[in-house]
Sequence to fold (495 residues):
Amino acid sequence: MAKGTRTKRPMTLGALRQSDFTEAHYATRTVKDEMRGNLLGLLKAGKPLFPGIVGYEETAIPEIVNAILSRHHMILLGLRGQAKSRILRGLAAFLDEEIPAIEGCEIHDNPYVPLCAACREKLASMRDDTPITFIPREHRYVEKLATPDVTVADLIGDIDPIRAARSGLDLSSPLTIHFGLLPRANRGIFAINELPDLAAKVQVALFNIMQEGDVQIKGYPVRLPLDVCLVFAANPEDYTARGKIITPLRDRIGSEIRTHYPLTLEEGVAITTQEAWLNRNENELYIPSFVYEIVERIAFLARQSKYIDKRSGVSQRLSITCMENVVSNAERRAVLNREKRVVPRPTDVYAALPAITGKLELEYEGELRGADTIARGLIREAIGETFTGRLSAADCLPVVEWFNQGGEIQVADTIASDEAGRTFQRIPPLVLAAKQLKLKDHPDALVSGCHFILEGLHALQKINRSEERGYFVERRPTEPPPPDREAGQRGRYYN
Fold:
């Protein structure tokens, strides 16, 4: 990192020369050297490099580290929702906390090696009295979302005729340039999201800056040897199939790093838990582990579904927003029933359909079926797989037998936990199976566990479910009627 700053910062170039910010250190060191040195320091100290980034410890992060150590420009290739933008913004942590620059300069000019004509003139006239300012690292990261309408003037700059007229300068003078985003990122990091969407002529300007350090503005050749680390992000489908990144630019990008979706459910749950807004201060919140797993499985199953476009991908934001909706539905139920504890149930996942359908890019066959139908199928399949992984057939056989003997139960989505608990107590095998899930020891969690078992049996087609009858088993006309049972155990139970 940068050498320790003093309480009283140097305010002029002369004072700067006498401070810790020596000319020997700053005159020749580039921003890539700076990032490399700070990264080596973090590695030696064993500190985390990208806090909050989960699942890339053995894949993308080592490749990013190698790119920085190699002083490369880099590009992150990955489908939507793979934390590409977050990684790009995390690169700013490898910059010094602050660096000295000539005061008033638009491009953060190095006091020892000024780049722009205005700063050279100021330095020549004021010498050691040239005023100095300090630029914090957060102001040295510049990000631009690429769109087809972005121009060379936006990124590089343009002639400012008003400035030329006021100063009496010729339009070919470098003092008339109004700098764009890239020069303003000088001595920092410049990131471009969705790189393939840039027009070809803009990409040409980029690689000229990267390699030759010059650019033509309104027909005037301008030397602009910027000190900048360029990082890009793109969808691999755009990058390879649509071919919108010109070959000379691709050739000048040192490292190409592939991102990916979570490789395991545990990684996905960790990301969702970290990113989702779940801290509802009004009520105590308890989310059973199987609810986390169901939500995460929906995204995993969607990425494998033949009805969903794999080239578009299924963003990790699906799991995040789905979990937020699940908790909100449980919160709504708790408020309506004046309960102090919020405990989501598997049935709440169906209330999160609006957070799922909008994130699915469907294939033609999926469009015919409809996003709502596809999403409901994914939820049911996710519940079934989670159920199978947590309970054995032997645990739930008595529950299925209870329904086979003519039992029916209907529990509304908005029913209070205590009332639902009394209803479930009438099915002792169900309560006993729910206790096998090792949930938190309170009635609300047990109710959620009972719902999970019923939904799991329905997903595996062991029992039926309908809005009118609740949970039941459809008997065939040839089957004999169930044997008589005691009145308290036969018939339907309603909320």
About this structure: The radius of gyration is 31 Å.
